Amino acid sequence: MPEKTYEFHMEMTCEGCANAAKRVLGKLGEVKSVETNVQTKKVTVTSSLNPDQLLESLKKTGKECSYIGEKAN
């Protein structure tokens, strides 16, 4: 699957939450980049994995997460 960029909503209140998202996604191996924004509560991920796999990993943080959609490049 080609690399695509996806956006997710995640209930983040601090940089610790953002780092948790980066940590769980980093374990997947097929993730090129992860950008977090605590203010907008968005996680932007560039990966060859499908969004369902990425969302399942984000849920391992224990935070409420949802898939927003594919980001146009």
Automatic annotation (TrEMBL):
Biological processes, Gene Ontology terms: copper ion transport
Superkingdom classification of source: Eukaryota
Domain HMA: 3-66
PROSITE patterns (UniProt xref): HMA_2 (PS50846)
One MF annotation (Gene Ontology) recorded for this entry: metal ion binding
GO cellular component, one term: cytosol
Family label: Belongs to the ATX1 family.
Function as written in the Swiss-Prot or TrEMBL entry: Binds and deliver cytosolic copper to the copper ATPase proteins. May be important in cellular antioxidant defense.
Self-association and partners: Homodimer. Interacts with ATP7B. Interacts with ATP7A. Interacts (via dimer form) with SLC31A1 (via C-terminal domain); this interaction improves ATOX1 stability and controls intracellular Cu(I) levels.
Record-given protein name: Copper transport protein ATOX1
Species of origin: Physella acuta
Lineage, broadest ranks: Eukaryota, Metazoa, Spiralia, Lophotrochozoa, Mollusca
Gene that encodes it: ATOX1
